């Protein structure tokens, strides 16, 4: 199971800092920080990632934290167990007043 892309959006009415950490086993394969402006008139700030570290051998743990208080994770091993297909997924993480969430959908490899 591979993550093909990650889309994080800020739905809050205030600026938010987001950290995205990806680990494969005990190794951190990526750690990036982003700062998104507040939602304004229906427009949201965010980031769309499609990086080489998303594919590769071994299960990937993806953790997205907002302002170091809200955290959501996705484990490719768990997703593979829930899915009938060992293909690819697209991850989506909205950050709103209730915190951060993590959702996924099947994606073409």
Describe, in plain words, how this protein is organized in 3D.
- It contains one helix and nine strands.
- It has 109 residues and is mainly beta.
- The strands form two sheets. Strands 1, 4, 7, 8 and 9 form a five-stranded mixed β-sheet that branches. A four-stranded antiparallel β-sheet has the order 3-2-5-6.
- The longest helix is centred in the last third of the chain and has 7 residues, at 76-82.
- The chain starts with a strand and ends with a strand.
Average pLDDT confidence is 90
The span between the termini is: 10 Å
Q: What proportion of the residues form beta strands (DSSP E)?
A: over 45%
Report Rg: 14 Å
What kind of sheet is the major sheet? 5 strands, mixed
List keywords for this structure.
single chain; 109 residues; mainly beta; five-stranded mixed β-sheet
Q: Topology of this structure?
A:
Blueprint: E1 2-10, E2 16-24, E3 27-36, E4 45-49, E5 60-66, E6 70-75, H1 76-82, E7 88-96, E8 99-100, E9 103-107
Parallel strand pairs: 1-7
Antiparallel strand pairs: 1-4, 2-3, 2-5, 5-6, 7-8, 7-9
Concise account of the structure shown:
The chain is built from 1 helix and 9 strands.
